[in-house]
C-alpha cells in the first residue's frame, strides 16, 4: 500500500488513457479503419498495438501524424496537409463509431475512484484526448459520475506535458496546485504536474510512450490505484 496524508490533498486530477481505461484496442481499430480510407501506401498498412502504444499520449492529431510518418518513413506525411486533413476527418468518424467498444477499465479503478469520492475529494479528468471523445468514453464505462469536469486535449490552447490543462483544472476546482494530486501513466502527466507544481502519482501499467515508468520523475508509482491509501 502507498500511504498518502489526506490532509495534504484537496482534489485529484486523473488522466484517462492508460490510467483509467486501456484504450489501445480502440486506437488500433480507429486507425486501421482510417488507413483503409487513405491512398497507398497507407491503405495496406497493418496497425499493430505495440506501435500505437509508442505513439499514443500526446493527443490524437499527434498520433495520426506519427502513424502516417511511420508508414511513409517521414517522406510524404510531414508536410502533406491535405493527407492529414483527410486522415483526421476519417479518424474522428471511425473513433466516434467505436469509442469504448475495444477498451476496458483497468482493475481497481472503479473501487479507487469510489474511495476517493468517499474521502470527499473532488475529481477532474485531464486527458489529451479530445474532450467529446473523453466524455463519451467515461459515460460508456460508467465513470462519468465521478467527473463533472472533463478537460480534453482541445479544451485549452496547450496539451500535457504543458502545465496549462492542469492549471486550468486547479482554477476550475478552486484548489492550489501544490494540494492537487495528479494521477497519470506517462512522462507527459509527470512533466505537466511538475511544471504546474502538483504532486504526481503514476501507475505502472499504462503506456508512457512504450517506456517503463521507473525512469520518470514522479512522487510515487503504484501497480493499481487501490494501492493508494489516504491516512
Ligand atoms: O489521447 C492521448 O494522446 C492520450 O490521452 P491521455 O492524456 O488520457 O493519456
Ligand atoms: Mg495517459
Molecular structure report:
Pfam families: Hydrolase. Keywords: Carbohydrate metabolism, Hydrolase, Magnesium, Metal-binding. The protein is α/β, with parallel strands linked by helices and 231 residues long. It folds into two domains: 148 residues, Rossmann fold (3-Layer(aba) Sandwich); 75 residues. The chain has eight helices and ten strands. The strands form three sheets. Strands 6-5-2-7-8-9 form a six-stranded parallel sheet, sandwiched between helices. The protein has a two-stranded parallel ribbon with strand order 1-10. Strands 3-4 form a two-stranded antiparallel sheet. Helix 6 links the parallel strand 5 and strand 6. It is elongated, with a radius of gyration of 18 Å. The model has no long low-confidence stretch (mean pLDDT 96).
What is the SS-derived class? alpha/beta
Query: Low-confidence parts, pLDDT < 50 over ≥5 residues?
Result: none
What coarse outline follows from CA principal-axis ratios?
elongated
What portion of the residues fall into strands of 2 or more residues?
A: 5-15%
Count structural domains. 2
The number of helices is 8
Give the distance, in angstroms, between the N- and C-terminal Cα atoms: 11 Å
Number of strands: 10
CATH topology of the largest domain: Rossmann fold
| The CATH H-level homologous superfamily of the largest domain | HAD superfamily/HAD-like
CATH class of the largest domain: Alpha Beta
Ions, cofactors and other ligands present here are: 2-phosphoglycolic acid, magnesium ion
Strand order of the largest sheet: 6-5-2-7-8-9
What share of residues is helical?
A: 25-40%
Radius of gyration: 18 Å
Q: What's the pLDDT, averaged over the residues?
A: 96
GO molecular function: phosphoglycolate phosphatase activity
Keywords: Carbohydrate metabolism, Hydrolase, Magnesium, Metal-binding
InterPro entries: HAD-like_hydrolase_sf (IPR050155), HAD-like_sf (IPR036412), HAD-SF_hydro_IA (IPR006439), HAD_sf (IPR023214), PGP-like_dom2 (IPR023198), PGPase_prok (IPR037512)
Family: Belongs to the HAD-like hydrolase superfamily. CbbY/CbbZ/Gph/YieH family.
